[in-house]
Structure formats: C-alpha cells, structure tokens
Amino acid sequence: MAWLHSLVLHIRLIWSIGLFLARIALSELTQRKLALISTTAVILLSAIALLQVVKAVETTITPPTPLELAISTEPLSATYRLTPAEAEEQLSYFLKLYELQPTHREILLNIGILYETLENTREAERYFDLAAKSNRTTPHIIRGIEK
Hints:
By secondary structure, the chain is mainly α. It is built from four helices and no strands.
C-alpha cells in the first residue's frame, strides 16, 4: 500500500506543479495586457498634453482682437440706427460667435443690444443677465467667421 500512497502523492505534486505553471502563464498574459493598456494610456495622455501646449502657445502668440459693440451709443455714429435687416444680419453673426465662445462678455452684450433693437426684450434681458454673470474679464481670441 505504500506504493499507492506514493503514487497519490506524485499525482498531487504533478497536479500542483501544473496549476502553478498555468497561473504563472495567466499572470504573464495579464501583465502583458496591463502593460499594453498602460502604454496606450500614457501615449494618449501625452498627445492630449501636447495638444493643450500647442493651443496655449497659439493663444499666447496671437494677440486677442478687440471686439466692438454692434451698435454705438453715440447718436452721430453710423451704427447708431440699424434697419431691422441689418440688425438681423448682425444678430446672426454674433449668435455664431456666441456658439464658439458662450462666456464672452462683449458678445453677450452685443446680442442683448441687438435683441433690444429688434424689440425682443425677453431675449435681450436673458443675454444681458448672462453678460452680467460672465466672469471673463479679458476678451478671448475670436476667429473671423465667414459671412
């Protein structure tokens, strides 16, 4: 019976060694997958950081263009009185700018003034409130929009 006991022990030993090798193989595969995922994440984060640096450099190099109000408040100016068609054209232009920079105070003021000119006081008040709440004190770069 000693040989039977020895055979069982050898089978258990071989079984344990097989399980151990299988676990090592699985852990190596897991480590390779983890390494691949980590490398991919690092590459993506580096690309995002590079894009942010390029954008920051671009905004620092190009000076912001001043944005004038759509309607001058001086009675002798050429833009003091706009026809409704001209006001609508100006409004569509500033609404396109608003889509690009929704927190730009001067854009919000222009939209409010134009809505007020078109006698839409509810929308004018809404944009005046947004301009008042805007915490942007310096104008951002506004790229020209083709009309």
